[in-house]
Amino acid sequence: MNFGLLTLFDYYPEDCSPQEYYRFLLDEISYAEELGFDSVWMGEHHFCNYLCPSPQVFAAAVAQRTTRLRLGTAVALLPLHDPVRLAEDYAMVDVLSNGRLDFGVSRGFQKTSYDGFERSMDDSRERFAEGIEIIDKAWSQDSLSYEGRYRRLPKLSVLPRPVQRPRPPIWIGAGPTPESYELAGAHGYNILLASVFAPIQTFTPFVKLYRERLQEAGYDPSQVSISTGNHCYVGTSSAQAKDVWAKHYVRYFHFVSTLIEEKDYQQAKQFKAFAGVKSFLEHVDFDRARQTLAICGDAEECADRVAQAKEAVGNTHYWVYTDLGGLPREEVWASLRRFAEKVMPKFR
Known about the structure:
The chain is of the alpha/beta class. The chain is built from 13 helices and twelve strands. The longest helix is centred in the C-terminal third of the chain and has 20 residues.
């Protein structure tokens, strides 16, 4: 199994400056490479203190601080952008990193992002499907012509060409609804399970659907990758882990709840699955979250949860999101070290 570090850049202005925060993250990622992690995954958000509106910029900085880590997006918000420009930007990341890009894409969940870019959430799925087709062709072909609903392209070459051939791996972010699995399976793309939103067992039937669609489209399911992961803190004991992490995890839930309004999803037909998320985030307690969305305990407890995910969905990749809630640097480092030394070797 491959192991990755995820950060979604939840930033708390009262803790430090943006400059200090980015330096902290770059140091964390460098340390993860030293520990033997295989990848780092970076989120994209806009107009809030998820402080990464441009993961391609941050990934370019990471490329210069690392030599081995794969650089993944989890996820780039494709419907908000011109797909040709994204193809250019991320091809540059692949070149600057000497072929280490993993391109993860999805539609996001914040209405404020769509409003800010004057996009409708109701056509996000169609924009997404068109955009990923354009990017795939831009990277795979020497020249590109396209006639779509949202983008029409004359014959042109997207440069620079990515290092990876025929193109960098494409990952589709997939929640507990079937459409993303259908699309990924039809095109042989990898999938990133949105396991921060639901217990891993929720995804079992969707992964089965994905594998069926792969076979129907002529792809070998054993040749694609499936990623999942959890909010994570590995402590010296179960009690110590809860004592250190609980207040930071609850702080993170409250932070995310401020970014969601239920009314935004009641009328958006493509996002109805998000209705009720705000109420859940506002009322969930630490122990319930620990049992479903997070792994928090000693190394044995955390390893058991990783094994449960493997059994449920047969994932090839697993990430941990440890730096959430303003967890202090020394505790982030300690958790990552325990995970690398005591959990990862059980699955190598």
